[in-house]
């Protein structure tokens, strides 16, 4: 089911072909929540194997327009993971220190170890999304040999190469775009104004960014089309119905872990010999008595 939202090659994503309000084959939220519960149980099992095997790591990267539901989806879907095997990184506006380095520097610090799952709440794609819409790169200092008109082109190329490099070094990257509609975003902003417990979420800047809606949609389309590959795909997930969005994200994560196919590590002959050596000693210390023949 998740494959219908999967973009795994350049130039395959056309925003007008994707319905932000789709609920797939589900008739209601109850059905989706039941299916998600099954996925979370399986994800938990697969994560334990991944952590034990320590053969491969994976990054689940989330990008979206404001109010699409990134934070809530991450909490709802990934709360089943064991804390010892997962990290989360939230990328805000870059600091002066981060701007003094190459644009991938701050993200490289958060690449997981083998056996780990990393969650990226926003990411290096901010540099080709908000960075593109507001042309932030034009206010930065560049070496004289850098052509300012080719910065975005080079960043797409650098992203493709870096993600390929990670894949060649046993770190997968799965990129998820939570695709919310403009009307639904307006309704969610209204709820932040009208519901007191949500007031803290409201920002006038978020509303002001709506003036650039079409520019952002074009930027997402360009970023996805320039960087989607078979090894590091994008998923464009309908986000108008949170219950469907969360189920779909759980489906993507489960499917990814199943494709990685982690196994419980098996002891070799040397380790088995060590087990036999200590088994009798530990059994005696545990108060076990040897069965009579």
Number of helices: 11
- Gyration radius over CA: 23 Å
**Contiguous uncertain segments of 5+ residues:** none
**Using DSSP, what is the number of strands?**
6
Reading off the top of the CATH hierarchy, the class is best stated as Alpha Beta
The CATH architecture category equals 3-Layer(aba) Sandwich
- Number of structurally distinct domains: 1
Secondary-structure element order, as H and E? EHEHEHHEHHEHHHEHH
Shape: globular
Described by strand count, sense and barrel closure, the largest sheet is: 6 strands, mixed
Q: How much is the average pLDDT?
A: 95
- The order of strands across the largest sheet is 1-6-5-2-4-3
Polypeptide structure, described:
- The chain has one domain (2-285): P-loop containing nucleotide triphosphate hydrolases (Rossmann fold), CATH 3.40.50.
- Helices cover 46% and strands 12% of the residues.
- The model has no long low-confidence stretch (mean pLDDT 95).
- The protein is built from eleven helices and six strands.
- It is α/β, with parallel strands linked by helices and 293 residues long.
